[in-house]
Amino acid sequence: MRFGTLDFTAAADSAELLAAPTAAAIEAADAADAADVLVAAIDPGLADTAAFCANYEISMADGANCVIVQARRGERTWYAACLVRGSDRADVNGVVRRHLDARKLSFASMDDAVALTGMEYGGITPLGLPADWAILVDESVAAHERLIIGSGIRGSKLLVTGAFLASLPNVEVLAIAQAG
């Protein structure tokens, strides 16, 4: 399948283009769902949203970014993921903080995000995140027919449906986006 200027193939047949946790999540998914997850190799230097979209002729609204947040309340610290369209920002200090019932919320450090997910920074995806993490997916992402997300590495991107993302374990769909 072609999207923008990229040619996508079945991700289940291209484990070399996926981070290990991502490949494991696709392998564990229902066969029909896994068949809908496609992957394309990209230039790793163009993995960041703006550069990627400009180079591969894809609208920022047709991509989704996965950001890792660190939540704290008292002595307890935990992590969650937020998925919003590339044209939007997650309302981390409002909606996300309240939804997670955190006293303080911040973006996870790059080192923590990489170590905890087993994925490359700039390629983190909701597929294969730790099983005890909440994954907050913006309602506009869940409603999108097809969109680009990370693959766990900077050298490729996944093409998925919003419905597939909404069906992942630990996903909660809610309005977390602010216009970018």
TrEMBL record:
Organism: Agromyces ramosus
Source superkingdom: Bacteria
GO molecular function, one term: aminoacyl-tRNA deacylase activity
Stored InterPro entries: YbaK/aa-tRNA-synt-asso_dom_sf, YbaK/aa-tRNA-synth-assoc-dom
Annotated YbaK/aminoacyl-tRNA synthetase-associated domain residues: 44-163
Gene3D superfamilies: YbaK/aminoacyl-tRNA synthetase-associated domain (3.90.960.10)
Name of the protein in question: Prolyl-tRNA editing enzyme YbaK/EbsC (Cys-tRNA(Pro) deacylase)
Pfam family, one: tRNA_edit
